Amino acid sequence: MDNNREEKAGLKFLFIIACKEILNCEVKFCHSLDIGMRGTFLTNKKITNTDIKNIDNLMREYIKKSYPILKLTVSTKDAINYYNRYNQIEKSKGIENIINDTVTFNELLGNYNYFFSNIVENTNQISNFKIINLNNNDFVLINNYDKREYIHKKNLLVEFNKYNEWINKQHISYVSDINKIISDGKISDFIKKNDIMINDSIMKIAQDIVRLKKKIIFIGGPSSSGKTTSSRKLCLYLNSLGKNTIKLSLDDYYKEDNEIKPNQDGTKDYESLNAIDLNLFKKQVSDLLLGKSVKIPKYHFSIGTKKFEENGIKLEKDDILVIEGLHCLNEEVSAFILKKDKYKIYVSPLTPLTIDRHNYISTTDNRLLRRIVRDNRTRGASIEKTLSTWENVRRGEEKYIFPFTDEADVVLNTAYIYEIGVLKVFVEPLLYTISIDSKYYDMARRLLDSLKNFYPISSEYLDSDNVLREFIGRSEFNEG
């Protein structure tokens, strides 16, 4: 059971109610961040720090008084009529996709809402929250605030806003808008437009690299972000601008498995920078910059060792070295390179699309769906195996990736607005294989429940250079 997810749902519900009481306005939760949930106040009133303080005080009062959060079973038709009555059309359309005769509403202080997750049973189970005022009627709402401090990630928010502006121009705000495009038979054209937008972002990055005369490009980001496809497309775009590129993967510089020191419990942290042979990496990159020929390694994860290529590579005067890997944004990896010569790119799927105003699409869940499909296709891994390692992957991201996102010169967003409809076709059958006695049953059912909101999309519409091909197969860059 994901208590953190339950508490976040309760915190959202409490915040929504407090905003109605204090400001007489609705709120929209737009997306998750590595810490907290970002949203916006749906009002023309300028929200002040005093307003935020008043909301905070009321929420703490409700928590102190220990109000119950009830679960009410209502008919699906009544739920749809309820939201239509209050002009929350996107919520009613979301419930229309639920084939059950009933749905579970939550009730708190006479307010009713529907969340796509379990929720705490009492306000007293909500603790240590914080509201960050972003001063433009946007906010960040954080639960379990004392665990990690919130650091404002300007680059990420700029990228979210840019993508949000684009989908607004396409007259899309919610999943139901994409579903209508599918049912109207227009998804093929929309996929082409979305692909053009992302490809244009990569071309602009390539042009920026050439303009700034950068010598070494570092591409980093969390698991299942599409780093491999993005780096290879970037190389092609740089080639089209007259630049020869040489590509390296930081994964090929893992230490020999017997050289990686185990933790106290005997496990090995393969997500840690300590698992990388930084001395070898720095030596080889330095030699390349000096114009020397270098025989680069290829790491074989199945046997935990690396083998060196027979033929050496050499970096010519105007060539560009492109390096991708988990730790590429960490300055410890690249401190030996002059700042004027390097360019860092943070890659992640950041979708501003939401199911409804109170239920956003988790970027973490999005990446997990990608990983489930890829692991099953390329490694024959069961879905339970993928889910069993996900917690460690997430822990590694929080320690080794997210703290360095603002080190990036630019953020490359690899999310497709339509992508969960494509992934649904592949991942849904796998999720159904999780048995009721599995420790991952609740997680699988939660993901299945969220997938009900998305109409399926055939992968036949996707080009071979699409980032999703890295996960579902038939990529021109990776046939693994």
Describe what this molecule looks like in 3D:
This protein has 480 residues and is α/β, with parallel strands linked by helices. The protein folds into two domains: 3-142, Threonyl-trna Synthetase, Chain A, domain 2 (Threonyl-tRNA Synthetase, Chain A, domain 2); 154-472, P-loop containing nucleotide triphosphate hydrolases (Rossmann fold, 3-Layer(aba) Sandwich). 41% of the residues lie in helices and 17% in strands. It has 15 helices and 18 strands. The protein has a five-stranded parallel beta sheet with strand order 9-14-8-15-18. A four-stranded antiparallel beta sheet has the order 1-2-7-6. A hairpin with a 4-residue loop joins strand 6 and strand 7. Helix 7 packs across helix 8 (227-240). It is globular. The mean pLDDT is 93.
